[in-house]
Design a protein that fits this description.
about 260 residues, alpha+beta, Arc Repressor Mutant, subunit A, Beta-Lactamase, six-stranded antiparallel β-sheet, two-stranded antiparallel sheet, 9 helices, about 20% strand, DNA binding, IclR family transcriptional regulator, DNA-binding transcription factor activity, WH-like_DNA-bd_sf, Tscrpt_reg_IclR_N
Length: about 260
């Protein structure tokens, strides 16, 4: 596991820290266990030798990232990582990183844009930026919108594991005005959205609006949020960016925010 990097290992292996990797391997392994593991189990599951695992576990216990069972033979995660994460709430990080990107998009696309996350069965609007023009459509910050019949919801569901999608659908409750849709139609939509990488669909809430939505992909490959532009086409003499241009701009905005929130 600690072999020298080859030419194919790429940029990520230029600066290796084997000891750090061992510690992170232990933390990630213990995060998946409900009742902890013995040192022998950890050693076997990680393919390491016993002495290096002993030293690493002792340091993790000393730094309070890992705790021993009262009997002393099993190791499990403490709450320290949880506490560290909540010193700098991920939601605040996401919003602070997203807002400048969203503002640049709105200025270039001349359209509004909003960011949603999944929250207890539906979607929560956590950031909203208006376009620079006289006309536009915006979604109120802090509002809850439907999981099933919105572009944002379809994209959030499309970019999940099957297990996580089922959990989200089971937790879902209808919001005001939400349209009930056939499960077979939804499943077909998820496949199509995954293949395309995004959703472009006439709004099912407002006439004359085309919702363009891209996922923000987290380190595990699932959507952690969705970025949506409710596109309104100008019909006067002013030449605004086309829906094709807007889609390209939104794709770049979403890509710049993806894989950042580990």
């Amino acid at each position: 596991m600690d072999s020298e990097p080859t030419d194919n290992d790429g940029e990520a292996d230029r600066y290796r820290a084997p000891a750090l990797d061992k510690g992170l391997d232990i933390l990630e392994l213990l995060s998946e266990q409900k009742s902890g593991l013995t040192r022998a189990e950890i050693t076997k599951m990680l393919g390491r030798n016993a002495s290096e695992m002993y030293r690493m576990l002792e340091r993790l216990v000393a730094r309070q990232y890992v705790v021993r069972s009262p009997e002393g033979d099993r190791y499990s995660l403490s709450l320290k990582l949880y506490a560290l994460a909540h010193r700098h709430p991920p939601m605040n990080r996401l919003i602070s990183e997203a807002l400048p990107v969203m503002q640049r998009f709105a200025d270039a696309a001349e359209q509004s844009v909003h960011l949603v996350v999944y929250d207890r069965g539906n979607l929560l609007v956590i950031a909203q930026v208006d376009g620079p023009g006289t006309w536009g459509i915006s979604v109120r910050l802090g509002s809850r919108v439907g999981l099933i019949d919105t572009g944002s919801g379809r994209v959030m569901l499309a970019f999940q594991t099957d297990e996580q999608r089922e959990h989200m659908l089971a937790e879902h409750t209808k919001v005001k005005g939400e349209i009930a849709l056939d499960r077979a139609v939804l499943d077909a939509d998820y496949r199509q959205i995954r293949e395309a990488g995004y959703s472009k669909k006439d709004s099912q809430q407002t006439f004359g609006v085309t919702d363009v939505t891209f996922p923000l992909i987290g380190p595990s490959g699932q959507a952690i949020a969705a970025l949506t532009c409710p596109y309104m086409r100008r019909i006067d003499e002013y030449v605004a960016p086309s829906i094709g241009d807007v889609t390209a701009l939104l794709k770049d905005a979403a890509a710049s925010l993806s894989m950042m929130h580990d």
